[in-house]
Give the backbone structure.
Amino acid sequence: MNVLSHNKRFALVVIAVFGVLTTFAWAAPASSTKFTNLGSIVNTRHNLTQQPIGAGAGWMSLSRNDYGEVCVYCHTPHGSQTLAQMPLWNRTVKATTYTVYNSFSLTQTVVQPGNNSLTCLTCHDGQTAIDSIINMPGSGNYQASQTTTQNNAFLDTWPGGPGSSFWGGHGTLSNTPATLGNYGECMACHSPSGDQWGSAAPNFDTFYIGTDLTNDHPVGVTFPATTGSGTDWNTPAGVVGSSLYFDVNSNTRMDKAEIRTYEGKVECASCHDPHGVPDPANGNQFKPTFLRVANTGSALCLTCHNK
């Protein structure tokens, strides 16, 4: 007999009392028709308004606000944050010191992640809820103070928001009742090591980077100045200001499908485009994990590395 943990039994009781669901079921992975990875970001997992189909439908609304807009979880045309130079950035940006990559064979300087990595890490380091934004949709839904602390009180003003639900609200431990352990944390359900893991929940371990970056490709690392024949590096043909790019189609323009540096450094966005990059070789379905270059045959790696 499968014995539920104390936390799971407690959640079951709460669900039954409030009529959220008549039976207890873990969120099933999203249907392939929900995330087709075709056309635009609307059809990808970066569209945070979407809910899983079937038994899992409605679960996400217990831990985050559904603002009904795709772009607002990251961007706003007015009232964006001013703590970092990010593109009309609408998310809380916390002051964080990351443990950066290091290796005995590393010849280049590695510093703290730059803005083109922090845009990704404001979700993927697991410190900030996916609905923690500054300017909510609609008139008057603006958090005037620029702060590095997630403002749960402000987030709870959105109609139908999770508030202090038994899930913890907004996916953060700080808002979680002690009786529920890590229920408010995304990885409590979405990791095999989580205390509420269920086999039907999608495993997000790969996407949960955390603040220790020592097991990931270095970001904030300076691209070598000496490249080409006799070195381990290919030479980027394109230059825009202090940024370099591999001009694959020779049109002298930095295109979505081209690897690049930012101010001479490799960042998350050097290899990934969060909006998706169509792959003509695969029916224009977006390349896996929002890559700019599909890594078939290590094509992504060999763009920069001459091995």
Q: What stands out?
A: Residues 223-304 form one domain. The mean pLDDT is 82. Strands lie at 221-222, 238-240, 243-245, 265-266, 278-279, 285-286.
